[in-house]
Each structure stands twice: as structure tokens, then as C-alpha cells.
Amino acid sequence: MEQHSPSIRAQAVALMRQGVPNRLVAERLNIPRGTVGWWRSEDRRARGEVYEEPTDSPKCTGREFDATAYAHLLGLYLGDGHIISKPKQNHLSVFCNAVQTGLITAAENAMRKVMPLTRVSQRHKPGCVEVTSYTKHWTCMFPQHGPGKKHERRSPAKPP
Q: 7, 97, 113, 115: which could form a disulfide with 69 (CB 3.0–4.6 Å)?
């Protein structure tokens, strides 16, 4: 493991405190992004700052959102989608027929309109494309999520 000089670390911390993203700090100083992330978390801890992950979840922030895009995404989720829950993150996946490029684009656009801060990506599989977005807030937006068959779950009391 390469040791970096204290002056490099000080430069990185100064850039991070100015709001420069980890990726740019790493590129500018020619150090691994993981190292920059570690230094950022250590700097926060030393200053007693509690990190709160930014969210644009309409359910959690009260932010207005595109109801049409949400309705489309809900239909895709209930049809050919699922949410995988992990301790610190959930990801929404919608599977689309690989030849229906318009559907793939519409699924990506709907995810971006509902949760603009999340990254949306595609994974190509035989005969289909998985459109995926990662955020722990997908379960806030889709309270239908849970164990068992979707159509047998109890409906939520009120929509998001």
C-alpha cells in the first residue's frame, strides 16, 4: 500500500472542504478515489460532522415530482421489476425486452424524473436489458415492496 505525504493529504482535504468531488480530487492529485473517500470520512469524523447522504426522494423531502413518470415507473416495477434490499442501499431493477429500445429509454427517463440524483445504468443480458438505479429510497417510493408475490401484498394506506 502506497503511503501519501501529509502535504498531499492536506491538499486533498482542503479541496474536499471546498466542495470538490472525490473523483476530481483524486484525478487532480493522482491518488486513488478510495483513498480520497477515506480521508473525507476521517476528516468528517475528526470535526464531529455527521454525514447525511443527500436525497431527492419526494416521499422523504416533500419535493414535487413528475406524477406521470412515477405512474409509468410503478407500472414497470409491478410488471417486470423488483427492488433488492441491502442494509445501506436498495436498487430498483426493471427488465425490458432488448429490441424495445423505446421502452428502455422510457424506463431510464422515468427513473431519472422520479429520483434525479441517482445514477441510472443498463446491464445487457440475453434477450433483455436491466435498467437499474441505486438508492435506499426506492422502498419509500414503492411501499408495495416486500416479501412474497406483489399481487398478494396489502396495498399501502396512501400513495407517496
A: 113
Paired with 18 in beta bridges are none
pTM of the model: 0.63
CA distance 115 to 89: 14
- Look up residue 160 and give its DSSP letter: -
- Separation of alpha carbons 109 and 94, rounded Å: 12
- Rounded Cα distance between 62 and 83, Å, is 22
144: CB partners within 8 A, 6+ apart: 77, 78, 150, 153, 155, 156
3-state secondary structure of 126: coil
The closest alpha carbon to 156, from 140, 143, 139, 138, belongs to 143
pLDDT in tens, 113-135: 998 888 899 999 999 999 999 88
